[in-house]
């Protein structure tokens, strides 16, 4: 199954709290300063609900999901 969603991080808004990596460790790692590094922007179908939860929990609203264009 192909993904219809992709992840994006607004690096200017992000303050490196790391909550996104705790909620979505399958797709997000943290660098040495605690800022998110996306392993893959594509969100597999089975992780869509987890990605939405991580986006909603971001205290700075720096994590987003977008519809992928075909």
User: What summary fits the major beta sheet?
Assistant: 3 strands, antiparallel
Structural class: alpha+beta
Task: Bin the helical content.
Answer: 10-25%
Order of helices and strands: EHEEEHE
**SS summary, helix count:** 2
What is the rounded distance between the termini? 13 Å
Overall, the morphology is globular
- As an assembly, this protein is single chain
Radius of gyration: 11 Å
Number of strands: 5
How much of the sequence lies in strands comes to: 25-35%
**What is the topology, as strand order, of the major beta sheet?**
4-1-5
Mean pLDDT across all amino acids: 93
Summarize the structure.
A hairpin with a 5-residue loop joins strand 2 (28-30) and strand 3.
Structure notes:
With 70 residues, the protein is α+β, with helices and mostly antiparallel strands. Helix content is 21%, strand content 26%. It has 2 helices and 5 strands. The chain has helices spanning 19-23, 48-57; strands at 5-9, 28-30, 36-38, 42-43, 63-67. Strands 4-1-5 form a 3-stranded antiparallel beta sheet, covered by helices on one side. A two-stranded antiparallel sheet has the order 2-3. A hairpin with a 5-residue loop joins strand 2 (28-30) and strand 3 (36-38). The longest helix is centred in the last third of the chain and has 10 residues, at 48-57. It is globular and about 35 Å long. The mean pLDDT is 93.
Produce the secondary structure layout.
Blueprint: E1 5-9, H1 19-23, E2 28-30, E3 36-38, E4 42-43, H2 48-57, E5 63-67
Antiparallel strand pairs: 1-4, 1-5, 2-3
Structural features:
2 helices, 5 strands, 3-stranded antiparallel beta sheet
